[in-house]
Each structure stands twice: as C-alpha cells, then as structure tokens.
User: What shape does this take?
Amino acid sequence: MPVTSLGARAPGRDLDGDADLIVAKANGQTKVFWWANDGNGAFPGPVNTLSTASLVEFLLNDVDADGDQDIIALMGSPLDGKVALLLDQGNAVFAEPQYLVQDLIYFHSLRADDVDMDGDADIAYVTDDQVGLIINAGGGGFLTATTLTNGPGRYSCMTMGDLDGDGAADIALGSAEEGYLAWLASEQLALSAPPATIASLTGTLRIVPNPASDRAQIPVDVKGDMTLRICDLSGRTMWRMDRKSSASNTAFESVDVSDWPAGSYFLTIMPEQGNPTSAKLIVAR
Assistant: This one.
C-alpha cells in the first residue's frame, strides 16, 4: 500500500484521551484509514473512513472547535489543485469535501496556524508563484482566500510560526530555484504585501536563458580576478574559467552547453577578494 501522508490525532482530542493514527493511501482513488489507539499501544483496525480523489497532502486540525480533528487537504492534479476541508462528524467519520480554493497550478505545501489571533487555525498554501491565505471565520466557515502573487520568485516550500514574537503566526518561504529565504509577517498578509527577503543563498546571480539548451550567458559584475566554475550534481567540473581583471572584459561570459546532458548544474563565481556567489543552471533537451 503506497502511503503518501500521515497524521496523528492529538492526545485528548479524539474523545478517549490517546493519540490515534490517520493514514492516506494514494492509488488513483485516495483512501483515508483510521487506526484507533486502544490505550495500550495497539491499533485495532483499520477502519476505512473516507474515499476521495487525488489527496496529495493533509493536516489535522480542529477548525470548527467541536473537539474533533478535521482534515485540511491539498487535492487534485498539479494543473488543477484544490484546498479542501473535510469536517469530522464524530469518530473520524468525515463529511464530503468543501472546496475552499480551486484551480491551483503547481501547488507545493499546506499549513495551518492562527494568523489573526482569534484562537482558531487559518490556512496557508503555496504554489510556484503564489501564497494563499484563508482566514477561519469560526464554526467550520472560512473567508475567501487572499492571494499574494508579487513575491521575489518561484516558491518551493513553506512553514508557519510566530517569527516576530507578536503572538500571531507568520509565513516563511523558500525557493529552490531562486535560492532565497523570505517571510511574510502576519500584519503584511492583510495588505497583500510582498515577502521580505531573509537571506539570498545564491546571491543575485542570474543566468540567461535558464533553462538553456545551446548557450548560457553568465553575468559578471565582480571586479578583479576570479574563477568561474560549473559543476554537475556529482561535483564534476563541466566548465571552468580563470578570469583576469581587464578593461576589455565583457559583462557576460558565454558557455556552450549544447552537448551537456539534460539536468541541473551549479555555477560558482569565486572572486580573489570577497565572497563567492552561486546559481543553479538547468540544461533542457
């Protein structure tokens, strides 16, 4: 059975005081199973409680404050994603999905935490270029999603927590492609403000085009002598240049990647003085 997601019903929240286990299995139609903890570390069952299409990721949270853990789920395909709410009607019997957001493209992550400090969990999700926030209105109802689209680049992961110590949950973002960490303070979310960059892990280096299939142009704005090197994922050097400082130097170095295998590579510029910068290069075929 290919297991795709796990969740534990928090102690004291499943009506008998111990932590049960909920498992999602993906195989075309997704089935959610509930193993009830008998209190002695044994899990009779499982009980098949729900069958639904294409469940990708889920969280357990008592969104309607009735003492039962509900399911917040990312569902669908990469080109047709949905955020769904499945309310627990008691004993892990779940209602049909309520779709809070639909038509998401390339979604990555789902989290729930209290952004507005009203005591219930709000929902955040991230796609390639969007951060979405759905405010919990109480009683299992949610407000229309607020979508932020003016971030610094493509997102790949997200988490939530109180980063500034004001008691409200903030959103932290990461980008594998752009190589940065950023965050959205809770007060920014209501204003649809752009994320604030925490750190750039690959500097501001931009290779064009990227992906590349023929030649890649590397911008070089560092003064002085330097070494430029591109390695594959195994660390093998695919290209290297020892560039000397000269008034005739161009602003770009052109690299022929036409015979490189498709995949990911990493460029590093190591100046004689100063810190190295790096960037990811994708070669496509």
Summary: The longest helix spans residues 186-189. The chain is about 0% helix and 50% strand. The mean pLDDT is 77.
